[in-house]
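quick one
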Amino acid sequence: MSDPPARAPVVAPVVAVIGGGFSGLLTAIHLLRREPRAAVRLVERAQRFGRGRAYEAGANPHLLNVRAGNMSAFPDRPRHFVEWLAAQGEPAGADSFVTRSRYGDYLQGLLREEIGDPDRAGRLLLEADEAVALRRVGSQWRVELALGRAFEADACVLAVGLAPPADLPGAEAAALAAPAYVPDPWASGLDDLPRGQVLLLGSGLTMVDLALALAAPDRRLLAISPRGLISRSHGPTRPSAAPEGPLDTARAALATLRRHAEAVGWREAVDSVRPATVAIWRAWPLAERRRFLRHLRAWWDVHRHRMAPAVAARLADLAADGQLTIGAGRLERLGWDGHGFQAAIRGRGEGKAQAWRFDAVVNCTGPSGGLPGGSALLADLVGQGAVRADPLGLGAEVDAAFRALGADGRPTPGLFAVGPLTRGAVWESSAVPDLRSQTAEVAAAVLACLERA
Ligand SMILES: Cc1cc2nc3c(=O)[nH]c(=O)nc-3n(C[C@H](O)[C@H](O)[C@H](O)COP(=O)(O)OP(=O)(O)OC[C@H]3O[C@@H](n4cnc5c(N)ncnc54)[C@H](O)[C@@H]3O)c2cc1C
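structure w/ flavin-adenine dinucleotide:
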């Protein structure tokens, strides 16, 4: 994409933030607080702003998988969430795990505060619609909404989260269309899912949620993933200094981390490297990042993304009861005969697949990074050459200032991305402790770009 033509300075910039989950909301808040002349139009297609995929309201019994003390939305106010809980008359220790829906209430509280603040009055506009296209018109973007309206913005931030899980390789079309197949557990109700044998594909934190939600005496759950690894539990930790030793390759980083873990404990070792993961990732060449994803990602994920201890205990009970079995294996084929699923599963290290029958199948493989990932907006941007997939297939390619790179590898003027879409550039880009700093950085980068304009 070519550079914008010369234009008059933007005196009261309008920024469109597409996606009103954690990343979009916090980017909007930082923009409004940093630039008293800026207006933000926050576009969200779901019913509620602020909650995103993770923090739905209502009878959502799921617990956060991060301690309350580490869930503040603001990097410079680490106790903000714990203080908010106390102000609601629900004091909770920094080490406690509260429900995700309560965290969604916190985010909606931030939104209400922002809208009610006289300094920001009228500068945050909520657009309850889906953005379906962004068009470059002169030096601005025209944001087109599904219901037919459109508005102009000086810059746009894509805060659209990640795509739903990818379709299962080996699954026949009839199986993918079957009523008892759940392609995206966060998008569908599970109340009508049959009893009996249920296959959960994936063994990460999505599977853990699903196992807890679906467990019933008349259900048998089988969870499989290529390695059968399962997230570790949180436990007591002490702060530890960063590891000493080389981190310049995936292999060296593993050796350094292992030595450090022997000295200080695995949780402390993993936590000690967290503040540096973005810098380490950025310093690795593409081949090294690929090596990490191929050989170490699964191990890193289960140590890094931990379960609340109460959740780990419940899961252990289900396994002890025989209600849940977790195994290492791959699904080679999935068919549907109108009554049930026939699956061919090859256990890890086994030469031949075994035949299984299931009453229901749930895709718990987690968000896919592929673009456009079913998003009309991303499909349009990729089609225009304004956005391209990052070479690792983790999301959209962005530069160090979170500017989206176009098909020609150059930053697309005035277009930014934030949140899990930027994983290819920074790797750790999915949990609040990472996103709270990133959203502040992205807001600063957007304003710097508008300032230059
Ligand atoms: C089930 C679950 C549990 C999690 N638990 C934790 C946890 O305990 N702790 C933690 O730190 N992290 C957790 N996470 C990670 C979580 O994803 C991040 O914390 C954070 O919520 C990501 O926010 P986001 O705004 O980037 O993405 P999302 O929450 O996915 O929000 C993106 C928003 O964009 C909207 N959108 C997309 N496309 C469009 C469009 N074209 N037009 C308009 N709107 C659009 C979507 O409707 C959505 O609301 C969890 C994630 C999941 C899925």
